[in-house]
Amino acid sequence: METEPVASSDDTADDPCIWVHPNDPSLSLIIGTDKDENSAGLRVYDLSGNQIYETEIEKANNVDIRYGFKLGGDTVDIVTTGERTSNTLGVFKIDSENRSLVNVAARDIIVGITVYGSCMYKNVNTGDVYAIVNDKEGNVEQYKLFDNGSGLVDALLVRTLKLPGKLEGCVADDLLGYLYIGEEDKGIWKYGANPSDGDIGSLVDEIGTHLTADVEGLTIYYSGDSTGYLIASSQGDNTYAVYKREGENSYIGQFAIVDGNNIDGTSGTDGIDVCNMYLGANFSQGIFVVQDGRNDVGNQNFKAVPWENIASAFNPSLDINPNWDLRKY
After folding, report:
1. 3 part of a folded domain
2. What sign does the CA torsion over 159, 165, 166, 167 have?
3. Are strands 187-192 and 178-183 parallel, antiparallel or unpaired?
4. Can you give the residue range of the structural domain that contains 67?
């Protein structure tokens, strides 16, 4: 499947996230970013690739989602994005009935760096939810999100990190408590995801045998509480590298998305996301969504592949577990 192209012919589509509908998985959504200077914002697509909603915020670069945020007496699903023009953090809740986004930021949440990439982390033991932003100079800021008492979301800076080079892609493993950050021309770094975990990271893998610069999008496939995969966009060779989620994140292999029936393959990918869950008949065993930097018949868009097509390409096959429910954490 591919989504409708973004409006601009420039490099404007960037990063997707997947939202699982709480009652009808076939009504789940793909939320993508558009960083066009004139029509920037978030774009919401159904699982057939049709754009069904858009926001009119400024240049949105990366987007992420977490479930079960307590807000105004309700439990909501929260989406955050880095807004690059004003260096602010955009915060939205998902309206599940209308399948739209509602701005719930308590104020202009100005961050202390020139925001570039972003992701989210939820501590499943405490329920605390964080937004993490980074920049091209190697700076990382972690913000705790909280209800301001009026049903809106505010943020408090709780941690900073400093890496050597240009950053963008990042992802957090909520259950194992790790934060992975892509340094574009170096490799993938691993840190503890909690504010108290300090500033010492380890290098999971570096540019060379398995990764070709730039390291871009990162995502986690959950096949269980402690098993699954870390997946990275290896932009320079148009592939996606797969690592074990557990232990030392040992390398498994990589794959490419090639031309299908009437849909071109992907290249120059920035952001990626994956979901293990059942999402209706076309994605009954999960979905992998990527930004396509060079769409064949129009502007950039997002491509979606059934997870079993990827899993079965490996020997032995990768795990497939559509029954593990990420919404319960």
Report:
1. no
2. negative
3. antiparallel
4. 13-328
How many angstroms separate the Cα of 263 from the Cα of each of 2, 4, 149, 305?
7, 12, 48, 11
Write the CATH number for 204: 2.120.10.30
- pLDDT of 20 higher than 90: yes
Query: Do the domain assignments include residue 8?
Result: no
Mean pLDDT confidence for 124-152: 98
- Any idea of the CA torsion for 319, 321, 324, 327, to the nearest 10 degrees? 90
What percentage of the chain reaches a pLDDT higher than 70?
100
Whether the model pTM is above 0.85:
yes
Asked if residues 277 and 326 have their Cβ atoms less than 8 Å apart, the reply is: yes
Residue 209 C-beta-side C-alpha neighbours within 13 Å: 6
Q: pLDDT grade, residue 297 (50/70/90)?
A: confident
Whether 160 maps to a domain, the answer reads yes
Walk across the sheet containing 272-275 and list its strands: 272-275, 287-292, 301-306
Q: Is residue 1 part of a domain?
A: no
List, edge to edge, every strand of the sheet that includes 251-255. 215-222, 228-234, 239-244, 251-255
Closest CA to 58 of 132, 108, 100: 108
Instruction: Tell me the pLDDT tens digit for each residue of 44-88.
Output: 999 999 999 999 878 899 999 999 999 999 999 999 999 998 999
Segment holding 244, helix H or strand E: strand 239-244
Domain count across the chain: 1
Q: Is the pLDDT of residue 38 over 80?
A: no
Among 192, 220, 189, CA closest to 204: 189
Of 309, 172, 328, 329, the residue nearest 320 (C-alpha): 309
CB 112 within 8 A of CB 132: no
Checking 129-132 for CB contacts under 8 A at 24+ apart, the result is 129/66, 129/69, 129/78, 130/158, 130/172, 130/193, 130/195, 131/64, 131/80, 131/89, 131/91, 131/155, 132/170, 132/172, 132/179
- Token couple for 4: 């409708």
Helix (H) or strand (E) holding 311: helix 307-311
Read off the DSSP letter of residue 119.
E
